Amino acid sequence: FKMIKAALSVLLVLVAMSSAKYIPKSGKRIPQTLSRGWGDQLIWAQTYEEALYWARSRNKPLMVLFHLEDCPHSLELRKVFSEDNGIQRMLDEEFIVLNLMYETTDKHLSPDGQYVPRIIFVDPTMTVRADIVGRYSNRMYAYEPLDIKLFKSNMEKAKKLLKSEL
Amino acid sequence: FKMIKAALSVLLVLVAMSSAKYIPKSGKRIPQTLSRGWGDQLIWAQTYEEALYWARSRNKPLMVLFHLEDCPHSLELRKVFSEDNGIQRMLDEEFIVLNLMYETTDKHLSPDGQYVPRIIFVDPTMTVRADIVGRYSNRMYAYEPLDIKLFKSNMEKAKKLLKSEL
């Protein structure tokens, strides 16, 4: 009886070992999220191709946000952006959203150069709305925390869709 | 005294309300992860551009995995793939990893068409390793759960880097 019990314990340990999940040598990691702190409740597209597909098929404007996690300007904007429930609700209900830390190969997404933070709207007709700009003439698609009201009025502009030429 | 207490309660409620986070009408969502169940402990690239940058700068081979969350073949493969600690460790330590549900614009990533599941290796010289194939002649980059041993030997092939021509 004792033998069976011992055998069972060994078996249990073996089963537990074989089903143990992989853990990196450097320790367990927190799974990465697509939101990266810009709105945990939003449904973020992963890639520009995916975002364009969603924008077209749902006939919603797309917001593409370029940022970096070690850029203080990005982080300051992220704080007000993610905590503004008006922005979050409008993005969730009326926009397709994508945040990127690496540039795409599509040059239309950098009308006046590559910098962060930079926010570009794209119409569901796949036209980049280069006309929707912020306050700074040298970085036309940059926003600072104080520009949040301007950003909201730009969202309203983006919601007025261009007529499809199809 | 009672008045002050009442005023304080009102203030507290107001503070709590103003700092309440945005919650969608359909209810709170679980933040999306980049792993999508293919290895929660791996550091996944978000886009192909990002993945290529990492592959080049760290001189590691890149694995690009195309899948769909409503494809039973993808889900079957995901189960054995995510639970195989050998694969997970090797990917974590020696590869750059990317999983995609939408095709990129780069046709080199679909040498024999677009289907899922499909796994393509890319050398850090940015050469797509079209020579590293699975068992099926009509879908050369597909793997089934039973092909996991073949997949591991293909990972070994991908680790033997091509000589850079630079």
Automatic annotation (TrEMBL), chains A, B:
Q: Where is the signal peptide?
A: 1-20
The keyword Secreted appears for this protein: yes
- Kindly give the InterPro entries that the UniProt entry links to this protein: AGR/TXD, Thioredoxin-like_sf
Gene3D superfamilies for this protein = Glutaredoxin (3.40.30.10)
Q: SUPFAM superfamilies annotated for this entry? A: Thioredoxin-like (SSF52833)
Its main localization is endoplasmic reticulum
User: Endoplasmic reticulum as a keyword?
Assistant: yes
Provide the alphabetized UniProt keywords: Endoplasmic reticulum, Secreted, Signal
Output the superkingdom of the source species: Eukaryota
Annotated localization: Endoplasmic reticulum; Secreted
Q: Which GO terms describe its cellular component?
A: endoplasmic reticulum; extracellular region
**A single BP term in Gene Ontology:** intestinal epithelial cell differentiation
Where do the TM regions start and end? none
Q: Which family does it belong to?
A: Belongs to the AGR family.
Per its record, how is this protein called by name?
Anterior gradient 2
Q: Which organism is it from?
A: Cyclopterus lumpus (Lumpsucker)
